[in-house]
Amino acid sequence: MSLDQETFYLLKSTLQRFIQERLVPAENDVEEHDKVPDDIVDDMKELGLFGLSIPEEYGGIGLNMAQECEVAYELGRTALAFRSVVGTNIGIGSQGILMDGTPEQKAEYLPRIASGELIVSFALTEPDAGSDAAAIKTRAVLDGVDYLISGTKRFITNAPRAGAFTLMARTGGAEASGISAFVVPAGLPGLTLGKPDRKMGQRGTKTCDVNLDNVRVPAANIIGGTPGKGFKTAMKVLDRGRLHISALACGMAHRILGESIAYAQQRKQFGQRIGDFQLVQAMLADSQAELLAGWSLVQSVAHRYDAKVSGARDPEVSMQASCAKMFTTEMVGRVADRGVQIHGGSGYINEYKVERFYRDVRLLRLYEGTTQIQQLVIGKQLMQSA
Ligand code: COS
Q: Which keywords does this chain's UniProt record carry (predicted)?
């Protein structure tokens, strides 16, 4: 599944224009009001952004992973809140249904996800199960042809906007194979949302708890129809999501480097542009080289991802996706730090965007698996290799 390159480049240049002309000018508004304006969300629907990764047969655009990474890179060049609006529909919210759903589930949900009519969130994390995803406690108990689901899901991106959740709950024993993935429509009796999370950065993104108290969900809503496969679905979804986040991190590094260069070109000290000082050039050079290394890594792993048999597990590719997530999200943290340093005191002031981006990128090292989880995935795979 992929879009032909010519059409893809047309899409990409349209998106680049949209980002420069619509999104970048709206960044301050999003920061101030903690909300992506509705007319921008409508334009995103119009552009097909919600359906980037959904195959054309379900009304999406059908990008392959390498193409999706290029788009994520572009979306990384503006406030990350914009990407977050479409992020769960492109990635962690939809992909479980796409990878492992039954034909009926795909037909029912994917067209509405692709159009943006239905916002879908990914509900795995819980108060006591973050990195240890197999330890979730949310229970789904069979009751006739339904399950009754109870538990709490935490930090759920787009939950306040969601019409449905790809939600992991325990239908069996304590092991990973006791977990099933469900499509849970929002608005069912017993499903309530917590108050919005107040976060360090990424204003305009929406996260909160999702509380379930005996929520009645048809057994037919188990993704793929067979219980016990939800942990693997979640892991496969995260492999893919980690690559997407890696590309996003590179796009943000590009933006911060651009802001840093522009500042170094106009700010004068000791009678000359600060960018003419070699110590400032060294910081710019380190950021440029690390960005290039990170982006080359992402592209290489994305091509490996596209080359593997669709839906099949390739532990080597999972390991490489973790390498990309670990390297690029740490890299953008260093680039943001240098960006603040190059801006000096101004870098600590809110009206310069590096202060905001510095806070925004901190999340990239945490969600979809912390750096330490990526290290575990990499280390485990290395120790298993012959
Ligand atoms: N793709 C498919 N299957 C996978 C997989 C992957 N990437 N990773 C693991 N599995 C399978 C394993 O093969 C194993 O199956 P078998 O029992 O049939 O062999 C099963 O899943 C359990 O795997 P494992 O024993 O490795 O699971 P662990 O509990 O040790 O957990 C980590 C592994 C740490 C990698 C996992 O818990 C994880 O990714 N945690 C981070 C969660 C996360 O990213 N949270 C962010 C929330 S979303 S914003």
A: Branched-chain amino acid catabolism, FAD, Flavoprotein, Oxidoreductase
Q: Is 368 among the catalytic positions?
A: yes
Please indicate, yes or no, whether residues 135 and 79 belong to a single structural domain of this protein.
no
Q: Is the CB of 317 under 6 A from ligand 1?
A: no
Other CB atoms within 10 Å distance of the CB of residue 360:
25
- Rounded to the nearest 5°, which phi and psi values hold at 198? -100, 115
pLDDT above 90 for 323: yes
Identify the CATH number of the domain in which residue 344 sits.
1.20.140.10
Nearest to 149 by CA among 194, 209, 214: 214
| Of 245, 257, 248, residue with least CA distance to 354 | 257
Please tell me the residue having the least CA distance from ligand 1 atom 43: 369
Close Cβ partners of 246 (under 8 Å, ≥ 6 residues apart): 69, 294, 297, 298, 301, 321, 324, 325, 327, 328, 329
Burial 87-109 (b: 16+ CB within 10 A, else e): bbbbbbbbbbbbbbbeeebbebb
C-beta 116 within 6 A of ligand 1: no
Ligand 1, atom 40, residue with closest C-alpha:
131
The three-class DSSP label of residue 242 is helix
Q: What is the pLDDT of residues 230-287, one digit of tens each?
A: 999 999 999 999 999 999 999 999 999 999 999 999 999 999 999 999 999 999 999 9
pLDDT exceeds 70 at position 15: yes
> Is residue 31 scored above 80 in pLDDT?
yes
Count of structural domains within the chain:
3
In this structure, are 27 and 141 located in the same domain? no
**324 CB-contact burial (10 Å; exposed 0-12 / middle 13-18 / buried 19+):** buried
Can you give the residue range of the structural domain that contains 197?
Answer: 120-226
Percent of the chain with pLDDT over 70: 99
